[in-house]
Amino acid sequence: MSEFDLINHFFKSTTVNRADVLxxxxxxxxxxxxxxxxxxxxxxxxxxxxxxxxxxxxAEDIGYKSLAxxxxxxxxxxxxxxxxxxxxxxxxANKVWLKNFISGFNELAEKFNVALIGGDTTQGxxxxxxxxxxxxxxxxxxxxxxxxxxxxxxxxxxIGDAHLGLKSILNDNxxxxxxNQQISYCEKKLNRPQPRFxxxxxxxxxxxxAIDISDGLLADLSHICKASNVGAVLNIDKIPVSDALLNYxxxxxxxxxxxxxxxxxxxxxxxxxxxxxxxxxxxxENNVTVSCIGEISENTEIICxxxxxxxxxxxxxxxxx
Amino acid sequence: MSEFDLINHFFKSTTVNRADVLxxxxxxxxxxxxxxxxxxxxxxxxxxxxxxxxxxxxAEDIGYKSLAxxxxxxxxxxxxxxxxxxxxxxxxANKVWLKNFISGFNELAEKFNVALIGGDTTQGxxxxxxxxxxxxxxxxxxxxxxxxxxxxxxxxxxIGDAHLGLKSILNDNxxxxxxNQQISYCEKKLNRPQPRFxxxxxxxxxxxxAIDISDGLLADLSHICKASNVGAVLNIDKIPVSDALLNYxxxxxxxxxxxxxxxxxxxxxxxxxxxxxxxxxxxxENNVTVSCIGEISENTEIICxxxxxxxxxxxxxxxxx
Lengths: 321, 321
What we know:
7-stranded mixed beta sheet, CATH 3.30.1330.10, transferase (chains A, B), alpha+beta, 2 domains, Phosphoribosyl-aminoimidazole Synthetase, Chain A, domain 2, Thiamine-monophosphate kinase (chains A, B), 25% strand
């Protein structure tokens, strides 16, 4: 099967049609019509087998996750998703694998109305590179540089479950500390992260900065601090964790692991104190769980406190090299 | 060195700044301001070491070619280049390699005023995926579906030299048939193809269809024919070839090789007979060499003729699988 047949068969089987896609897959370029009153938000991420997803991951989960981690960047900017380009490198032209990959990809693309507008398939070790474009009002973008001393620091959802999911897949012996349901929940957090548009959309009306937690809470928060030229005091014991994680650590979480494990794709964001009550109220009305875990400081270091005692943590997340 | 340091060091060392890039590399997304009166043209291509460039290719040439083949898609659509996202997969964080890669990339980016707006570096076998965006007037886009029976078929420049360059690099014994200057010319055609914006820009005012020759003239022309639901009669002996190619084949070109060899990145395009004289005049005024090599037919097959004799050629180009 030739490259062209592959593209025609599988890339064209995506199901989202948008009126702003004037010419889709099949020519030298796609032609797109951006909205008059918005700017574009664009992000690119590569996922490599064995690095960004387990080698044992199903084609459907890889398709889902590849799109999810890219959309997550749009959510962290407060952007509305629109278009996606997809480049896949595959060891062989495996029809069944591609069909399942596109099926997982489509499931998420349909949920957020994202149209596939370009693609390339090449022969090589399994990897996926995705480029997403969304629409944003630049005055309301959740830039990393928006944090100010005194702002509260929040996270959405629970932190650390994706890492437990990875432990499970890598055959960690859970010694019956987790129920099958909890194991399945953690593996789903790893393989099918949810881009937090629910939170990003609401945050746009506040003076917020945001980042998605891909490399670990501490590493990602440090990007906000660096871009805003500020520091942070983090109350470790306020970091929200699931019952599954508490069970795994027998109620004494390994905070270093929770702080440095990536792949949760929750949002870490800041909000001025004066707007925090209103922000939390609106999040609650929209069923988005957020937790206050610290405060931005003037000093440019990140201080971690456990029960008000200062701790030393290496300020690093997942290091790709 | 961490992923972030790599991105900061090398991706930020690109030198093209554009007023329509409101927020560049360093946040979750770039923020871009599209022009009011244009649509967007978008294309994605992956280049894999040993497939799309020789394993021996220099980092500078890889940087140049990766951008060139993507910009070539914009040229083939009649679009004006603007923004580029770059995802590199590297076996190791090699500073010297990255510096040279970005140097080759910048050389071309500066030539066409393309701003790097996003990047991702991952550890893995060497590959480059690029996403380019340009501006286009959709009424003037050089769509593959624009060809009509009776249109003349043209190509820019000479065909087949990039393939000779590959032969040279793979240690083909040229038996002194080519001068060192000719060998160097052919290798440059392979490693540093020129996106034909000079031709694409002029073609916009005509009822033209166009494609860039990446997979071979016959394969790429067949994409125009398929999209336009037409066929073609190709006069093989009218295909423009260089003195280097004539020397290599001792004045008897291997036309099958010329028709199926890819990587020239010249444009193959169609133009109505009634507009061809004017088009050729304008091309000449702009120092763009174009050659008429055949005519679009109603019948949906591609017929190849040599000295008015019909030939049989397998209608295929480079097959990635």
